Amino acid sequence: MSQVLMPKATAVWLVENTTLTFDQISAFTGLHPLEIQAIADGEVAGGMTGLDPTTNGQLTKEEIKRCEVDPKARLKLSVRDVPEPMARSKGPRYTPVAKRQDRPDAIAWLLKVHPELQDSQVAKLVGSTKSTVQSVRDRTHWNMQNVRPRDPVTLGLCSLKDLNDAVDRARRKAAREDAARKKAGLAPLESEVEAEAVDPGEADQPEVDALDSEHHN
Q: Do 45 and 39 contact (CB within 8 A), yes or no?
């Protein structure tokens, strides 16, 4: 049997959206049953976006239903006729013109669901700019009245792997910064007093010379 694509993300989706047993999900994804249980308990893969195996042709809804009614049954991976996508080379992400209008929606979704992501990460994920991310964040985007949060993975603007990797990096960085702040808090810092006198809104303003070319697309 072929290898399941992104087994952990697939397991997350199966745990959240089906009544399959831990053993059934384990047998299909190749993960240990205890890891499946840990996913269900929120101890593993916390915050990871699940991957629906029916949307990429790995499973059919009928196959899932067949195994849900029979705990002893085992899921059978569907035959994939679609070739595996080639790995994307590093560099700026190109977004097809037809999908560029979806980027503000994707940005709104990322800001809402994953607030731990930095603006630069959000921009990189959807192939946008930090100024556009900022305009969606502060609701000054030129088309804000039509923006509605939509998953960038579903829109095809980024892969689930890229999204989960970005979230993991953001959370690790936040944890390191939190630990550093707690350590620094053991001694009073004059810089903290000075920071309180600064208008926080000024620090978050986008650069004046940053141009959002997307407004003209």
A: yes
Residue 176 lies in a domain: yes
| Same domain for 51 and 113 | no
Asked whether residue 104 is assigned to any structural domain, the reply reads yes
For residue 128, give its domain range.
93-182
Distance CA 211, CA 177 (A): 30
37 against 79, higher pLDDT: 37
Q: Which two tokens stand for residue 176?
A: 């390191």
Pair 58, 84: CB distance under 8 Å: no
Residue of 216, 86, 200 whose CA lies nearest to 143: 216
pLDDT digits (tens, 9 = 90+) for 12-42: 899 989 999 999 999 998 889 888 888 888 7
